[in-house]
Design a protein that fits this description.
The structure holds 2 protein chains of 2 kinds. Chain A is mostly helical. Chain A is built from 4 helices and no strands. The mean pLDDT of chain B is about 85. Classes of the chains: A mainly alpha, B alpha/beta.
Chain lengths: ~130, ~475
């Protein structure tokens, strides 16, 4: 595998989602990878508090995401999404992801955020990128 | 059999390698200790981003203390923070959750796993203070901490990793800390607030394997990161002082003035020009630099009092633009002598300067942080001795009060530091305020003992007649004798 190109986060996410769609997996995989990569750097507690801050921020659009918050971030999102129409759940998950990465950018800047997203989603995204011509 | 060759790693922090005797020994186990806010994390990041590469990877463990999000947020303001290195060359790992469990062995195992997977050559643990506090808070206690530190030291050395533990320590507790026994190198950072000025200090307390630069050195955290001003630089320069022939003289740019000094100022001397405000000290300084520029001798002016556009305006500007004169211009009031000396020494070496002007001593004193002003005489002594040993001839200006009841050469009692003294004064004569000058001293040389009128016009200083027919001149009210 060649080294991943310097993706911008939207391209990176789009590429990764293409792979997930092909595998018929949901965007929860993106969340799981991000929780792992970011949690390693800022601690699981750090990830959890950022996540739930975003959940509350999006309450007006997706009030069903705020209901009964007593589980860990990814478990909570999984449970909430399972109760909704898959298309609606997927849309909420991706918008929440946008809000989350935008918040992260506000805190640590785009450059560092992109490096973290690359670590989290790089493999998923690169699966979709053809090898460059020799 | 060959002895082991300890490779020294360049830290990327200006001045730090000189303190460490060349750099950080590879595979060493080091402690960066100091009070909160003293610059430990910045120093660790600067070293890490400078050294880390795909073939020399670094892992940065954050424990409790500064939240990693904030650390990343603030540290990336420095230019050394290269986000592109994160991932392949640098990895950040948070150990807060592991430490909250209070299981040192668990933390050790986690560190070992991360090191095994990423194979870093550099390992940082920030803040190690959290580990110490955790040891006190749980059953493991000091014995557990000692075991932890020793195991960590053994593990990191076995993995061929150069390790830095970053910790907040106060001196008394540090002495009893097991970390101090195990560490190969201990770097101590501190900060001192005196009146309104903050002064930062660094000391290499311990360094196994080779000689470090002893003593306390000053450093600064600016927009670029940490910069250290080691005394070692000046000391090294002093090892081989430049010697001059007694006959070698330097012109002050006015033939009559040179004649009064016995043929110019002896090379390598320090000349103190004293006089009240507006008497022409800066004009004389500019002429001194111009005279050097004419014969290809670069000069430097350390302008502590006036900004460059307030100096001799176009005349000095022309010298600076031509590259004949360098300007060290500072108006901050928290400098250390080492910082001033570092800047001057660097510029002298770079420009191969032969002449240095310090304008003025009162401005220099003001520019120093208040804590250094207390021993200004010692600072000045070191400055002058260092500069003259470097082979430059120094002209310093000092303002004296308009006092006519006694004869003073300096407000500081520092006249003894100068090899030569030139005095300027005002006198009242026939309803006019006239300028006079006299050479008070030129060590080891014959010189004029006469008082001369002098004028200043667009061309500079013009030495006029002597005041041989007057007496009571120094009282400011001369009478015809």
């Amino acid at each position: 595998m060649t080294a991943p190109p310097p993706f911008q986060r939207h391209q990176l996410r789009a590429h990764a989602m293409r792979t997930l769609n092909r595998r018929q997996q949901s965007s929860l995989v993106l969340w799981q990878s991000l929780a792992l990569a970011l949690g390693k750097i800022i601690g699981d507690q750090g990830f959890e508090s950022l996540f739930f801050r975003c959940v509350y921020q999006s309450e007006a659009t997706f009030p069903w995401l705020v209901s009964k918050v007593d589980a860990k971030a990814i478990d909570h999102l999984t449970a909430c999404m399972a109760k909704r129409d898959p298309a609606q759940a997927e849309q909420a998950s991706l918008e929440l992801l946008n809000l989350f990465t935008d918040t992260l950018i506000l805190l640590i800047g785009e450059l560092v955020t992109n490096r973290i997203l690359l670590a989290a989603w790089g493999k998923l995204a690169v699966d979709e990128v053809p090898e460059p011509p020799q | 059999m060959n002895k082991v060759d300890i490779h020294l790693l360049a830290t990327g922090i200006p001045g730090f390698d000189e303190l460490l005797g060349g750099g950080v020994p590879e595979f060493s186990f080091n402690l960066l200790a100091g009070t909160p806010g003293s610059g430990k994390t910045t120093m660790a990041h600067q070293i890490m981003f400078s050294l880390a590469s795909p073939t020399r990877r670094a892992i940065f463990f954050t424990v409790l203390g500064e939240p990693p999000l904030k650390m990343l947020r603030y540290q990336q303001q420095f230019p050394f923070f290269d986000a592109d290195k994160i991932g392949e060359s640098i990895k950040f790992v948070n150990l807060a959750a592991d430490l909250l469990d209070g299981d040192f062995d668990g933390v050790l195992t986690r560190i070992q796993e991360e090191v095994r997977d990423f194979r870093p050559s550099l390992v940082f643990v920030d803040s190690f203070r959290s580990v110490v506090q955790s040891a006190r808070a749980n059953d493991a206690g000091p014995a557990g901490l000692q075991h932890f530190v020793q195991q960590l030291g053994v593990q990191m050395t076995s993995w061929l990793a150069t390790t830095f533990l970053i910790g907040e320590y106060l001196a008394p507790e540090a002495e009893s800390s097991p970390v101090f026994t195990v560490a190969d190198g201990i770097i101590w950072l501190s900060q001192l607030v005196h009146r309104d000025a903050l002064v930062r200090k660094i000391q290499v307390v311990k360094l196994r394997g080779h000689a470090q630069s002893l003593g306390v050195h000053s450093f600064r955290i600016n927009d670029k990161g940490i910069q250290i001003f080691p005394r070692a630089v000046v000391k090294a320069a002093l090892d081989a002082p430049v010697r001059f022939k007694p006959s070698e003289r330097m012109s002050l740019g006015t033939p009559e003035l040179d004649a009064m000094l016995g043929g110019g100022l002896p090379a390598g001397y320090s000349l103190l020009v004293v006089g009240p405000s507006g008497s022409g000290k800066t004009v004389l300084s500019t002429q001194f630099l111009e005279a050097g520029a004419r014969i290809g001798e670069p000069g430097i002016i350390a302008a502590f009092e006036k900004s460059p556009n307030q100096l001799q305006s176009h005349r000095l500007d022309a010298l600076v633009e031509a590259g004949s004169v360098g300007v060290i211009n500072t108006r901050t009031l928290d400098l250390s002598l080492d910082e001033v000396l570092h800047d001057l020494t660097s510029m002298i070496v770079r420009m191969k300067a032969k002449r240095v002007v310090i304008d003025s001593l009162s401005g220099f004193e003001m520019a120093l942080a208040s804590v250094f002003r207390e021993d200004f005489r010692e600072s000045l002594y070191r400055l002058v001795a260092s500069l003259t040993h470097l082979g430059v001839t120094v002209l310093m200006t000092a303002e004296t009060e308009d006092r006519y009841t006694d004869l003073r050469f300096s407000s500081y009692g520092n006249a003894f530091l100068a090899d030569a003294i030139l005095m300027q004064r005002y006198i009242e004569l026939n309803g006019r305020l006239r300028r006079i000058l006299s050479v008070v001293k030129v060590r080891g040389s014959a010189h004029s003992d006469q008082l001369h009128f002098f004028d200043i016009n667009d061309d500079g200083i013009h030495v006029r007649d002597t005041l041989e027919n007057y007496e009571g001149i120094l009282t400011g009210h001369p009478r015809r004798g």
